[in-house]
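Render this sequence as a predicted structure.
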Amino acid sequence: MNFIPCEDCALRRLALFKKFTAPELSFVRALKNNQIDVPARRVIIEPGRFAGKLYTLYAGWAYRYKLTPTGQRQIIDILLPGSLIGLQQLMLGDSESGVESLTPVTLCVLTGRSIDELFQRHSHLSEAMVFALMEDQRRADRRMALVAKQNGAERLAYFLLELVDRLVALDLGQDAMSYFPLQRRHLADLLGLSETHVSRSMQELRRGDLAAIAANSLVIRNRQLMINLSGYTLSTREHPRLLL
């Protein structure tokens, strides 16, 4: 993908993200010093290792994961366009989690300026960053709390509704249909199920005419029944997300 200046970024036009003042946009423009394309199934950040780079996921899907003591992968979250990659590692110097591309992705490389300047000179940007991190943590905490009490079909229904709403906010899907590159093994890692259990849960949703996954697409056939099944509620967003 050709280099896209920050002022021409398509994501910035979305209501989901914070609108910048001229000085804020100037700072972010200086922060971005490169743009790279990464193929699918490539490690962007390796657990326990960090090269000191911060990225914004501009296009494509990725996921954050941890490795268990036995070397098994546990997917923590699905990363969609607008997600910051490497902030935890940059702030803490290390992290137990890694990031891998799920599809081909385009990354904005944010190493043109020190991130410390953001906190020192642009309080509204740093505040928006904190709110975005808190929102992501709250979303993950809510899903994990429910997962501990739900069966496979309920877990899957909850995650699918959550993902669809995130895609709709990014203008990447509709309430009824979305692109869906996740495979059974990804869903198993994410939901704490076996691949066999994921298959059974998908079949249960299909038989109930609630949802169907096929050919890299997700179709929500009855949102209300999925809400009733999973206990999902759409999160209210009080603050726009930060897009660096």
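Summary. The first helix runs from residue 22 to 31. The radius of gyration is 18 Å.
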